Amino acid sequence: MTDARVFFNFEVTADSHTLSAYKSRGGYQALEKALKGMQPIDVENEVKASGLRGRGGAGFATGVKWSFVNKQSPVIYLCCNADEGEPGTYKDRWIFEHSPHQLIEGMILASYALHVRHAFIYIRGEFDLPWRRLLVALKEAREAGYLGENILGSGYSCDLIPHQGGGAYVCGEESSLISSLEGFKGYPKNKPPFPAVKGLYEAPTVINNVETLANVPWIIANGAATYAEMGTEKNKGTKIFGVSGHVVKPHLMELTLGYPLKKVIYEDCGGILGGKALKAVIPGGSSSPILKASEIENITLDIETVAAAGSMLGSGAIIVIAEGTCMVRLLQVLTRFYAHESCGQCTPCREGTAWMNKIVTRISQGKGRKGDIESLECITKGIMGNTVCALGDAAAMPVVNFVKKYRDEFEYFIEHGRSMNDGRLEI
Amino acid sequence: MAVSKSEGAMIELKIDNQIVEVQEGETVLQVALRSGIEIPSFCYHPCMSIAGNCRICLVQVNGRPKLMPACNLPVTPGMEIETHSNAVIEARKAIMQFISLNHPGDCGICDKAGECKLQEYHMRYGDYDPLSIEPKSRMPKFYNLSERILLDNERCILCSRCVRFTREISKTNQLGIVERGSHSRVERLECATFDDPYSDNVVVNCPTGALLSRDFLYKSRIWYLETVRSICTGCARGCSVNVWRRNKNWYVRGSGADKNLLAYRISPLDNPEINGPWLCNKGFDLHKLTAKPRVLAPAIAGRDVTIDEAIEAARQMLADAKKPAAIVSAHASNEELETFKNALGDRVAIYTRQDYQPEAGEVVEDSFLIKADKNPNSYSVQALFGNQPFDAGKGHDLVLLWGDNLDYASLGGARVIHLSSFEESQEQPASVLIPISTFFERSGSFCNFEGTRNNFEKVFDKPTLVQHAGDLFGRL
Q: In Å, how far is A361's CA from the nearest CA of chain B?
């Protein structure tokens, strides 16, 4: 845990989530520093200089995103995207459970930089402990004068409004998050207009991931230069990675960007379960293309390297798959998820995800037919790039890559009506 | 090229190598529709918000890796759009395949066949080998949304036009899409009926056969029908409508010949000055308004006579009367009113009245289309003859009553020459009763409550003995 600096820099205890615990490890000093000695634009420039990139999956430069907003607009909103729903991801949950004040401080700082009076936290509906911890933390912060009117006597006022989602994966997409916050069905919106121009309640809106915002206090407190010392040239700082799947010790860890993936699997997580060989890795949540064991040899965990290998760093949810796992059944789990979570607004995603699921399910039941693989390829082509939001692409990408990289397993399953392996997902 | 005058800079852009000059703020689809360039669309409607959900209008833009939906693509200078590149054609095929995936394809028993966008685009863009071997998913079929509307969720392509209609146009919010993903379906409000006074518009606006009129259900294949331009006489708005009658080439011979003289259905005719593309449910029922028992033969004091006898008797009575009066119908066309004024204007005292009053249960007036005056031509009548109701105290001995719905008893004992289209129950028969044609049986024009003049055409021939009111006045 040598890399734990921004998040895992304290020992988790029963009350490490409280305000007093957070203050004892230097909490809210960045806020005081900013409100007393920095202009909003200084905060924005500091974040820009730190090279912080969005931690939700797309990896867009945070400071640049903030600079797109017209600061003269009478109302600007900030939304914290805490609808953590990508299969395999569980990092934001940890922040809510053990360091909620870090997010609150980050949000106040971001709100200060963006001239935001009211900021929203859209939290995943299934999160129970995180939700309760957030409410307590908000109450503590308000009572301590970090939230509300005239924060710390600076004349700046800000409120955070928590909102529980209704359990839709698609609401993690920023425009449907806005629809949902506004009280409508969580349908993504067509772009243009982009949220930075016309977002929540038609006002310019910035939407950032929990982890992104929780990085801000550290950057302000220690300076952009210190933050930028960590990581690679284009990927500054540290990121929380959550490893799951067939490893001995699946857990969350904070790693400097550029950390080798093999080291994560074989050293930090204690290797593959049961001493099996590695079959594949899904490096950034279920939507990112799967990588075969041979493809991860030299991969380091930063956006460019993973992209060069043909996948995405995404949300940092590393799913490790051991030899012997049935890829057809694994894909069926994924297609079922996307068919279930497609919002149903636009045609290609609504029909395509359900159709792919029908085909893959049929194959996994031993009723596959010749031509099914070609159909799947054709469907993914029809979905990708033709949908309103990115869910269509996210659903199609695993199918494309599973079918491309494990075609023999699919062909075997179709021909013989059973798995090439023993058909299990569990080890 | 004609462009309406409004603010906004002019921009030049290329669509399929054709240079088009457009205004800033328009979308590519609007420009294409106006310039006669074909881009298919299901969910786009010029009067409603952009949903961008059908994805059939995807086009290629220079310099962009992804295809863009034309309906939500604002024009920018130097834009080059391709509507028929290989990528676009492939995407359209894919979208058509997705849309048709769970569509039952039951055109043979679907009323929409022949005017169905899905059918049309399937013929034009659906040139693919269908891949699906999965059973189609099942949904509620032939479900009664209300007394007027039938919903077939299997045929629905979820374009959300009907939902947006009730949200944005009629503002009743009575329809919505429930469930998620491929389980999504259009549904009405729980514990309520779809009693929107404009509900029938959703049938016209449905691009497939998902929403159907129960009145027109299985009455006729639409290719046997043709349209005639007419005006709704239900209120002073005077909406332009199409009346659907049987095409002469498809006339039924022998038994069932009455089908040839049936107004099968009414649909709104897009008239931006008056009603836009909308119509209220009363307008959709226009053919039922004229389907009342008709007066078909002239009569003197209840005794059938020839038309010449009736006219001669009326002329004699008018000539003999000491103080004749006339009550003018607000259902008369501008042309008839003109003839009446020229022939009788200075010979009789003229009163006006509104033949029809709002009925019980009817929407009296709203902020959208429906007006409280339930007559089509009150504007012209009042412009020509003022707004003077009949005064029984003036001692008129003869009244030329033109129009419907007036009790003779209220005329102060005067003798009555009645020009009427419909049978009415009166205590005493009129001295002279002459049957006149309805607006379905003649052409002419009405002026609506704003004074906008609008024309209607003859839909059917009049019955033999029925007269056009305009032809009578010269002979009186």
A: 11
B157 with A379: Cβ contact below 8 A: no
Read off the pLDDT of each residue in B88-116 and give the average, rounded to a whole number. 95
Quick one: which of B159, B303, B237, B162 has its CA closest to A344? B159
Mean pLDDT of chain B: 93
Contacts of B97 in chain A (CB under 8 A): 382
Distance CA A234, CA A259 (A): 14
Contact yes or no for A227/A52 (Cβ under 8 A): yes
Q: Does A341 touch chain B (CB under 8 A)?
A: yes
By the CB < 8 Å criterion, does B85 face chain A?
Answer: no
For residue A279, what is the enclosing H or E element? strand A278-282
CA distance linking residue A270 with residue B290, whole number of Å: 86
Q: Choose among A339, A351, A388: nearest Cβ to B98.
A: A351
ipTM for this prediction: 0.92
Per the DSSP assignment, residues forming a β-bridge with B178 are: B185
State yes or no: pLDDT of B7 exceeds 80.
no
Instruction: Split chain A (427 residues) into runs of 10 and give each run's mean pLDDT.
Output: 76 94 95 95 96 93 96 96 94 96 97 97 96 97 96 95 95 96 95 94 97 97 94 93 96 94 95 94 94 94 94 94 94 96 96 97 95 96 95 96 96 95 77
- Bridge partners (DSSP) of residue A244 are A319
Query: Can you name the residues that pair with A47 across neighbouring β-strands?
Result: none
Of A350, A382, A385, the CB nearest to B182: A350
Can you give the length of chain B in residues? Answer: 476
Indicate the pLDDT class of residue B258, thresholds 50, 70 and 90.
confident
In 3-state terms, what secondary structure has residue B200?
coil
Residues of A in contact with B64 (CB under 8 A): none
Closest-CA residue of chain A to B157: A347
Judged by a CB distance cut-off of 8 A, whether residue A353 touches chain B is yes
Closest CA to A379 of B94, B100, B182: B94
Contact (CB<8Å) A342/B54: no
Distance, in Å, from the CA atom of B347 to the CA atom of B351, rounded to the nearest integer, reads: 13
Mean pLDDT of B227-250: 96
Provide the residue count of chain A: 427
Q: Which of B56, B74, B181 sits opposite A192 (nearest CB)?
A: B74
B320-343 pLDDT per residue, tens: 999 999 999 999 999 999 999 999
